[in-house]
Fold:
Amino acid sequence: MPDYSMLKEMKGAIFDLDGVIVDTAKYHYLAWRSLASELGFNFTEADNERLKGVSRMRSLDILLEIGGLEFTEAEKLAMADKKNRLYVEYISRLDESELLPGVKPYLDELRGSGISIALGSASKNALFILDRLNIAGLFDAVVDGNRVSKAKPDPEVFLTAAEELDLQPGQCVVFEDAEAGVAAAKAAGMQVVGIGRSEVLKEADIIVSGLHDL
Ligand code: BG6
Ligand code: MG
Structure:
């Protein structure tokens, strides 16, 4: 039986974005697949699993490794930029209807109980996405890919979020769907609710299928 007592004691809730609040993985996939196809190779949905929680440039490295291709840093920056422009076209069409089940009620419930809420995301598009989903105002702090120098599984993103909430790591619970994110939260000394499949989220303290389960 999972131990939900950590949720009763938490003072701060730190949410990953992609895969926890909204399913953007499908748009990342379409944009990366388009780049791969321009480069002459196939990029599958199974390959896309490897990019979850991983920074944009690291994602590109994984993609190029799959295609067996090598490029200079400047060429890679141009490719990542091109992929992002396509991705931004997709996410420009996001609205509240794409919030994952249970997100809005859970955030409202936490706010009602006086729990501080932060975002801890690798994405450089996080603020734009929160805005499109019309939930930016529910967050007391937003720490995204523009504000950290070390990507998950490094704990920097979550430690910065806790600091901004004025809380100790042990008072915060992280909600994460990616293996690298769970590892980052554990390295930060925080408890973790894993969102998704137990095979990938073994290190999480409890695992649920979505925020609607809480
Ligand atoms: C993470 C996603 O949240 O953000 C990754 O899970 C993505 O798949 C990363 O690569 C960076 O996102 P962006 O929006 O800065 O390209
Ligand atoms: Mg995620």
In short: The radius of gyration is 17 Å. The chain has a mean pLDDT of 96. Strands lie at 12-15, 116-120, 141-143, 172-176, 191-195, 206-208.
